Amino acid sequence: MSKPTIISKIQKQKRHAQRYNIYIDDEYAFSVHEDVIVSHRLLKGREIDVDEMKGILKAEESKKAELSGLRYLGYRPRTTQEMNQYLLQKGYEQELIEALIDQWKKQGYLDDEKFAMQWVTERLRTKRKGPYVLQEELRQKGIATIYIERALAQIEEETQRTSCLALAEKKWRTLAQEKDERKRKQKLILYLQRRGYTYDIIQSILPNVIES
Could you tell me if 28 and 10 are in contact, meaning their C-beta atoms sit under 8 angstroms apart? Predict the structure, then answer.
């Protein structure tokens, strides 16, 4: 059985208000977040053994990963895959990451279906990306097929046409130097296809572009 040791001092860090240095038997041992101090009831004079210390350090590692993940979420919404990859790159264990991801899903911080819905709406509006491109973008972010399909299904055909038309009119003007009308039209079609629009949508807006 391991011999208990005594917390001789708990010192607040100067540069990090929520972190504390823990001294055991008058020697610096480790630092922890204040939440870990509270959850493990760390007080000066309290005895802790080796096994309990391992639990404290594990809780501290979890807290670091949690704060790192929350900062990552603070910039913009993330997918489950993005979060998993980010924390792996930070050096955290997969088991710990999965536990945090489950926690964030329950709290609503991670929601792949909601992410897909917002991504499609925003990218169509600001970048005028078509369904095929949006589908591939979401697939690369690890979104499940069912969520991708639901997100794309919310786009009305008229909304697609409006977006495609605006994109086509702008591109048509930049192709004005092409004197061959057939080649100019073909270049426009290929451009719109690369932007993710279906052939049917493209054909439906072409007359409005070419005749304008």
Answer: no
On whether the CB atoms of residues 41 and 35 are closer than 8 A, the answer is no
pLDDT in tens, 20-76: 999 998 899 899 999 999 999 999 998 988 888 899 999 999 999 999 999 999 999
Q: Which of 150, 152, 145 is nearest to 198 (CA)?
A: 152
CB atoms within 10 A of CB 101: 18
Question: How far is Cα 92 from Cα 48, in angstroms, rounded to an integer?
Answer: 26
CB atoms within 10 A of CB 50: 11
* Tokens found for residue 68: 């790192």
How far apart (Å, rounded) are the C-alpha atoms in residues 5 and 24?
7
Residues 6+ apart with CB under 8 A from 40: 52, 55, 56, 59
Closest CA to 161 of 114, 119, 115, 209: 209
Q: What is the dihedral of CA 169, 172, 174, 175, to 10 degrees?
A: 180
pLDDT tens by residue, 69-95: 999 999 999 999 999 999 999 999 999
Angle between helices 157-174 and 199-210 (to 10 degrees): 50
- Rounded to 5°, the CA angle 47-50-54 comes to 110
Q: Give dist(CA 149, CA 183) in Å, integer.
A: 34
